[in-house]
């Protein structure tokens, strides 16, 4: 896949209360270009926002790419790189035979990853990583904008 474009994606999700109003952000960077994606939901969870950030970033890709996707969510990282294989094998049920939480997003993420070669990277949240801090700020701005528009 050497001829594929190289993209770096930094994602984050935020929630005011869990569940509560939530926001997500993705920063896509390639060849000196940058694209910002953000969004918010009125009632959601932090995990759903973390997943949505990655999903929206991958869905924004117009063609296959080599991607480094950076997240501060162990839930997203472990889910997409490890747990998902068993869930698919077990009909989207976990080890306790209960339905997998957020199966709708896991299934969408599974489909969105297929065209790409993705290297998933974890970074500790709120530890001074500039891109993670920026994604966090954008996710929180998305929440604030949504709440302001509701009040205005």
TrEMBL record:
The keyword Cytoplasm applies. The keyword Hydrolase applies. Keywords: Cytoplasm, Endonuclease, Hydrolase, Magnesium, Metal-binding, Nuclease. Mg(2+) 2 binds at residues 12, 136. It is an enzyme of class 3 (hydrolase). Its EC number is 3.1.26.4. It holds the Pfam family RNase_H. GO terms for biological process: DNA replication, removal of RNA primer. It is found in: Cytoplasm. It catalyses: Endonucleolytic cleavage to 5'-phosphomonoester. Its cofactor is Mg(2+). PROSITE patterns: RNASE_H_1. Binds 1 Mg(2+) ion per subunit. May bind a second metal ion at a regulatory site, or after substrate binding. Gene3D superfamilies: Ribonuclease H-like superfamily/Ribonuclease H (3.30.420.10). GO terms for cellular component: cytoplasm. Monomer. Belongs to the RNase H family. NCBIfam families: PRK00203.1 (NF001236). This is Ribonuclease H. It comes from Sandaracinobacter neustonicus. The gene is rnhA.
């Amino acid at each position: 896949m050497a001829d594929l474009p190289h993209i770096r994606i930094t994602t984050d999700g935020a929630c005011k209360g869990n569940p509560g109003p939530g926001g997500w952000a993705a920063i896509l960077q390639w060849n000196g270009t940058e694209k910002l994606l953000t969004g918010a939901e009125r009632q959601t969870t932090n995990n759903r926002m973390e997943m949505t950030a990655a999903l929206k970033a991958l869905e924004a890709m117009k063609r296959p790419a080599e991607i480094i996707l950076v997240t501060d969510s162990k839930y997203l990282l472990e889910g997409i790189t490890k747990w998902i294989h068993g869930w698919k094998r077990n009909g989207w049920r976990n080890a306790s035979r209960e339905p997998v939480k957020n199966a709708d997003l896991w299934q969408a993420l599974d489909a969105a990853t297929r065209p790409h070669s993705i290297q998933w990277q974890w970074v500790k949240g709120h530890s001074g990583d500039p891109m993670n801090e920026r994604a966090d700020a954008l996710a929180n701005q998305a929440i604030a904008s949504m709440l302001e528009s509701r009040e205005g």
